[in-house]
Please model this.
Amino acid sequence: MQEEQRLKLEAYVVALKKSGTPTAGVSPTPSPASDASTGSEARSDSPGRARGSICKSADQGKVYGYYAKITYRTLSFTTRIHPGLEEAIDDHIVLNEIVEHWAKAGTKGSNVTPFDDQVIDAVRTVLGSHKLDPNQFFRSVSICISASHWVGRCIQVYFPTLKEALDATKRVESAAYPPVLVGGHPTPDYTPEKAADQWSRMKKVIVDLQTASGRLSACQAEADLWRLERAHAPQHAQKVWKIHQARAKRSRTFSSGNKPKMCPEQKILRKLEQIIARWARELAKERKARQKKSSHDAASLRKRRWDGVESFQDFKRRCGAVQT
Model:
């Protein structure tokens, strides 16, 4: 990195910190790109915060260029590759403006703008002000499909245009409706069977989206999902068990809260039963201690018996009868 490029990058990072806007920061160390159909999970920490970086496109030590990337909600934008770092920084600034415009559109007024209209309006407005063509500015747009409950991670699918990504988002939302999990928490309608049915519908859509570009065959996409499911199977079973336990606990709490009030005689009887149960536990504890002591004494007695195999002097020395 040249001195001029480093100073420009540092000035940009300082400007972002001073502005205090909920935009993504820049990673001083470029991270490698990944064009896999099911890439690593790229989901923002919260709906109101974006996450972005400036990445380096390299292979075996050879650097091909730099590009910017930002993720907001369920969409991830990747820009064109530039030979220099300055152009990638400029693209990252534009991406932050798009996210900021998008975030403001989602909170403007009482009427909530549809998701697609928010994204399209933000991209059209910001890129239009910079006189940039979306087809040339974006190298790819990916969607993040939430599948943590079934495979423990988010599945990312890449598309060449924003329109294809938004259409894919609609297909995924349609396959996941009605949702049995919201924000990672089960809805009142959740059952393991309904969750499995929802995942089955989502898998079909994911396989169709991954195979549409021709990068993967249906068998390869299904095999990738199967490996993710198999690796996450123990954690998935634990999640289902925890949901069952939480529901059973809430059910017991609700039923105990609706119990009829007991009369004084019933309260006294219940108190006596608790005292007797406590007394029985203490007796069992003492009995177990006596049995343990008896077993220890019997073992000690067997140890102190001379079996005739060892010499009598060694036996007395072992038992402490002879001082050595």
Observations:
- Residues 21-47 have pLDDT under 50 and may be disordered.
- Strands lie at 51-59, 62-72, 75-79, 138-147, 153-159, 181-182, 185-186.
